[in-house]
Design goal:
Number of strands: 0
Distance between the termini: 12 Å
Low-confidence stretches: 1-8, 16-28
Mean pLDDT: 78
Helix content: over 70%
Strand content: under 5%
Shape: rod-shaped
Order of helices and strands: HHHH
Length: about 100
């Protein structure tokens, strides 16, 4: 597959998924940089959750506070998993197209 076509497919998938902001589009232009960004965001989400959980333990009503923190982490990780799946799909399609061209 030609690089221009592959890049168009990448951008179309990200635009369709709602990740069309310039910073994300630039970060997602290569699978490796996209994966690094996702790993960084996962680590940040975990750090935010840990900090919120510690803060919740200092409050009187702990359960609802911790549940809110867990919900936020779950939503963030779900979004990141979706982005990871998109990157994987793009990578698979690119490899398949390259394989078809070589045959």
């Amino acid at each position: 597959m030609k690089p221009v076509v592959a890049f168009s497919i990448v951008m179309a998938l990200f635009a369709a998924a709602g990740f069309a902001s310039p910073a994300r589009a630039q970060a997602a232009s290569t699978p490796k940089s996209g994966r690094e960004r996702i790993a960084d965001e996962r680590a940040a989400a975990q750090a935010r959750f840990s900090a919120r959980q510690r803060a919740c333990l200092e409050r009187f009503v702990v359960t609802s506070c911790v549940e809110d923190a867990q919900r936020e982490r779950r939503e963030t990780l779900s979004r990141l998993r979706h982005e990871q799946n998109l990157l994987d799909e793009i990578e698979r399609k690119t490899r398949a197209a390259e394989r078809r061209e070589s045959i």
